[in-house]
Amino acid sequence: MSTPINVIIDNKTVLDDLESCEIQQKEGTYANSVSLALKSKSFWSLCDPTTNFGSLRIKVVIGSTTYQFLIEERDSTPTRSGVSFTVWGRSKQALLSMPYSTSINDTDSTSHPWQTGNTTA
């Protein structure tokens, strides 16, 4: 019995056009990443990183486990049979970093005892 696998972008399966799918989980990184290689430009416009910026658009389903990723980069590569392209993105945790998050500036000028270092625990 084989494990069912599917790769979905914006609710459309790309399994028939997929050359490879690599999920990376590295020690020391806070977000997982995915790299997809597609055989043709059939799904080129679907994989535009500017569409639904900051949304989890890639789903990799392996058995009963679903991994979700943003689309952050898309690159084309000329090949003998035409043009293929790759798509890269990270998991939801990437939303905590640039370019998705914004800086928070503390404008509160109130001084608290714990800020001055003159208090004991």
Layout: helices, strands, pairs:
Blueprint: E1 5-9, E2 12-13, E3 18-24, E4 33-38, E5 58-62, E6 65-69, E7 73-79, E8 82-90, H1 113-116
Antiparallel strand pairs: 1-2, 1-5, 3-4, 4-8, 5-6, 7-8
Characterise the protein shown here.
The protein has 121 residues and is mainly beta. The chain has one helix at residues 113-116, and strands at 5-9, 12-13, 18-24, 33-38, 58-62, 65-69, 73-79, 82-90. A 4-stranded antiparallel sheet has the order 2-1-5-6, with no helix packed on it. The chain has a 4-stranded antiparallel sheet with strand order 3-4-8-7, with no helix packed on it. The longest helix is centred in the C-terminal third of the chain and has 4 residues, at 113-116. The chain is elongated, with a radius of gyration of 20 Å. The N and C termini lie far apart (61 Å). The mean pLDDT is 87.
* β-sheet strand percentage: 35-45%
Major beta sheet, strand line-up: 2-1-5-6
Number-wise, the strands total 8
Q: Please report the distance between the alpha carbons of the first and last residues.
A: 61 Å
Q: Give the helices and strands as they follow along the chain.
A: EEEEEEEEH
Q: What does the main sheet amount to?
A: 4 strands, antiparallel
Uncertain runs with pLDDT below 50, 5 residues or more? none
Mean pLDDT across the residues is: 87
* Helix count, DSSP H or I runs of 4 or more residues: 1
The level of helicity is under 10%
- Radius of gyration over all CA atoms, rounded: 20 Å
The gross shape turns out to be: elongated
What does the oligomeric state look like here? single chain
User: Structural class, from secondary structure content?
Assistant: mainly beta
